[in-house]
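> agent: user asked for a holo structure of the chain below bound to NAP. Plan: (1) validate sequence alphabet, (2) canonicalize SMILES, (3) run complex prediction with ligand conditioning, (4) return tokens. Step 1... ok. Step 2... ok. Step 3 dispatched.
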Amino acid sequence: MTSTTKIAVVTGASSGIGLATVEELARRGFHVLAGVRKQHDADRLASRNVEPVIVDITDEEQVAMLANRIAHDPQGRRLGALVNNAGVALNAPVEATPLAEWRRHFDVNFFGHVAVVQALLPALIAGGDGRLVNVSSIGGRVAFPTYGAYAASKFAVEGFSDVLRREVGRLGVKVIVIEPGTIATPMWGKGIAIMDKLAATMTADQHARYDDLIAAMHKQAQGQAASGIQPLRAATVIADAIQSRKPRTRYLVGRDATLLAAISSLLSDHMVDRFVARTLGLTARLGKPEEPATADRPNARATVSSVEAPLAVLAGDASDRRNIASSVPTTPPGPADWLVARLK
Ligand SMILES: NC(=O)c1ccc[n+]([C@@H]2O[C@H](COP(=O)([O-])OP(=O)(O)OC[C@H]3O[C@@H](n4cnc5c(N)ncnc54)[C@H](OP(=O)(O)O)[C@@H]3O)[C@@H](O)[C@H]2O)c1
């Protein structure tokens, strides 16, 4: 796609992946409408090829104004790309997450994107050869404990994207899902702050049930905030997909996302449960853990032990990837070999 005469819209552009994507698309020659919620963010972002627009994606009036801005572009430029990136996150056990938080997550992470798509799709179709990018997450494929509201909203984004792709592909719009692993953005700090706030409202019984889990997730979130890859990596994947003549339907971003996607497709659900528990250092609370069964995913071929070494990477113990490669059984060749190949 040639970018010089096209408009690109990015929602959630004040920080993180959204901000990096705005900068990358502007650098590549798009006129970028950068969606932010606060005037001071708009003032900060305005620059060559970057035109900030105030848009809270849960506010129908502001979404309509964005569509109106595109319809009346002073230079008659067409909409070439829409990046649905805005998002919120929290960590809390299902039973301790207030319904208001479930609704807020779906309002921002799902319904807000639906609203933007409905408002901008006609312009994207009219522009010809349009790209519609939904920023999901590896959490939209593999759901870790305490990510209930977040993962559920991202699973919704995944299904929505498949439907949309099959509806509008024939109208010339290519729908692309981006599935990042851990990216170093302010999202992790915000999530930890909400986690602490919600933990303070939990009952004594809930504390007894979940304190070990919350402590494990706290540790993981802090580690991820520090060890995540830079947002530019995700922005580059997004911009490349937008400019690709034949983009893929899904792009994983980061080694952790690639590994988790592979593991979840190779192992049975019970094995993935054990994998997640071990990754977080959690032990079974009631009796012995169930023996892993493969019946829930008949095609699963790997064993937990065959992926224990890659598992160490996800747990943050990436001391020596060559040792990991050599410690994975090599005969008979199978899914583990494929995983090792991805690690190299
Ligand atoms: N960071 C990761 O590791 C990671 C991994 C997988 C997927 N993702 C996804 O990547 C996307 C961007 O997240 P990020 O990590 O870059 O986090 P971030 O830096 O916290 O950015 C989130 C953006 O969403 C905006 N936003 C929140 N609510 C909004 C609303 N109602 N309307 C419009 N914008 C709103 C925020 O604006 P304000 O500043 O005004 O709040 C901010 O610009 C999200 O969809 C997230 O789920 C992130």
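> agent: step 4 complete. Summary for user: The chain has 13 helices and seven strands. Residues 11-18, 37-38, 56-58, 85-89, 108, 112, 135, 137, 180, 182-183, 185-187, 190, 228 surround NAP (CB under 6 Å).
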